[in-house]
Design a protein that fits this description.
Structural class: alpha+beta
Oligomer: single chain
Low-confidence stretches: none
Mean pLDDT: 94
Distance between the termini: 11 Å
Shape: globular
Helix content: 10-25%
Largest sheet: 2 strands, antiparallel
Number of strands: 4
């Protein structure tokens, strides 16, 4: 699975990259970014990241 982070809503609480540093990194402004070198993400990990974001800036990308 994949997630995306909407930087229009992300304010840099740091929960995502503190929770899942293998998948999420911090940019120069303190906001989360999905790591390009991240391993395949499980559905549970994706859901955990979505639930952890207080700004609802993380969403699951539906792949077809």
């Amino acid at each position: 699975m994949k997630v995306k982070i909407d930087h229009e809503f992300c304010v840099g609480h740091a929960r995502c990259f503190a929770l899942e540093p293998d998948y999420i990194a911090e940019d120069e402004r303190g906001r989360g970014v999905v790591r390009e070198d991240a391993p395949e993400m499980s559905a549970e990990t994706a859901r955990r990241l979505v639930r952890a974001c207080p700004e609802s800036a993380i969403s699951i990308v539906r792949e077809s």
